[in-house]
Amino acid sequence: MSAKTRWAVSLILMVSAMPAFGLVWYDTGRLTIDGVELFQDADHPTQYYYLPPAPSLAMDANGNPQLLCLKYVDPKGESSGGLFHMLASLELGPERVAEIEEQLKEKRPGATIVGALNLLEAKTEEGGPATASFQVVSAVLSDSEDGGFTRSLITSGHAPLTAGSRAAVAASLDPRGATLLFESLTGVTSDVSVSIAAEYEARVRGYNATVTAEVATIYEHLSGVYNKQEGYKKRELRQVVDELYHNNVIEVEVFDRSKSLGINAAAVEGILNLVTDKIVSLMFDHTSGLAKMPEKEVAVEKGQIRGRQERGAFVKFFAGTGNQEYMTDDQFVLKSRQDIRRTTFFLNLSQDTTVRMPVYLAGNMGGLYEAHKDNPDIFRVINLGDPSFQVREVRFVLDGEWAAAFDGLVNWVSVQLLKEYGGDQPAVDAQAQLTAKDVGEGQLERSVSYPRLGIAGPEWLDYRYRVNWSLLRRDTLSEPPDGEWLTTSEPVITLRPPLEMTEAELEVDRDAMIDRGVRVGVVEVRTRVMGAAETRRVGVLRVTDAESVILLNAIHDPAAEPEVRVTWVAIEGGGRRVGEWQGMGAGYLWIEVPDLVGGAS
Prior knowledge:
This protein has 601 residues and is mainly beta. It has 4 domains: 14-203 and 359-371, no CATH class; 206-350, no CATH class; 387-498, Sandwich (Immunoglobulin-like), CATH 2.60.40; 501-590, Immunoglobulin-like (Sandwich). Helices cover 12% and strands 46% of the residues. It has 8 helices and 33 strands. Strands 1, 2, 10, 11, 14, 15 and 16 form a 7-stranded mixed sheet that branches. Strands 6, 7, 8, 12, 13 and 17 form a 6-stranded mixed sheet that branches. It is elongated. The termini are far apart. The relative contact order is 0.11. The model is unreliable at 1-20 and 305-309 (pLDDT under 50).
């Protein structure tokens, strides 16, 4: 009889973050193929993500680099400056990804590239976003105020980390900077580099412990009986061989970098100690453990023929201890027994964590001019003396006499300029505005520009415009009305509302006011603006005033003459007399003082 028992126990405990799309291993499965790093997905071992070695120029739908470099010269042929505009990305083209994937499959059969590594914007120590995740490294393209080559530099500041995103660089260069930049881009290495600082999330093994235990208990038993009967006596030979073999081995391996990663592995270590102690107790306890010794065979064999067992007490009393007599026969008994117990233990305790790893990438823009110098959409020199680049400025100036009208009558005035070119060229529609606040601060003009766009004749000077006036407590007044336009070629337009302004002097006899019992005279002006009549007080005549003349100013519709009247108030009794309305068109008015002595009204 033989028995075989195998007992395998495998316990795996993993404490880790929840799987996330694009989470990769930091220290497992990484490959570098043609300078491109590949990261293994933490949950799908056959999926990889790529990280380009450097940022590169973004490409449009036709495969052309999204770059513009202009150098412009003045009408005399001398360099006047330049422009530089570029879009950068952090992607590999489909053909490049396919090439790398083929090489990946040679090293890792069945592996695929599922996309770019998911990058995150770098963080500062305080946890806020970094101020320059995307930077331009250049001596020419430096926005400095101490005599640099760049008049202005604008960058997006944020790295193009998501699929399809772009980072922008735009610079306006002085004459020296434009020349240096053109020369720099002709070489293998240029003065313009772009760098990207980012981070990516990766899973890292912080704690790992394995316990391996092998328990082997082997029991072998061999017994043999030989018996040969001749004559009348019996002789027996018994042989018993017992052998017991133990082999108990336990191995514990611990990999621990939890402190450096900030992981609390106390719970996992407690489980490891508890399970290890239990396994040791089971392995080496020979009474009740797994290494318990098997039951041995006895020396006396059972099941033999009669006369081959030891005599009992009753038989020995009557017959003695000699051999029994029996029939002659031959018998040989041989028995072999083997009892083998083997037990294998395997315990794996691991704890993972997610860390943010920094990425610093830089790429140089060298060799661009040599590769694209024949493409005018990328590199070209512009002569500003060409009529196509001339620009005309038209000034709209508020008439100074009307500046006072913004105090109490005008809210704002706006101008709209329309320059049409004909054909498929779109028209220029520009606007400007002056508010009461602007006029109060001394701003009386606005400028509007439009390009020549290659028009050869003097007709490029012609344009159309219209003016809108917003009057206080009234509708907007347009000039010309009904949405029409005024056509002109004048470089300066004086802004005046479609109203008239009338000025006049009003004079009274101060001595007569005293003699006739008049304390004051209240002066009112009645006007009509946009058809609506309005009366307002413009001054007060007092007997104590040194001057006897008041200056009057009235804004009104062109066909409506403004009028003035004086209301007199008596010294005694407060009586009053209202004067007649008189027109201001003559420019001078002598007002007779009435007699109010005794409070007459």
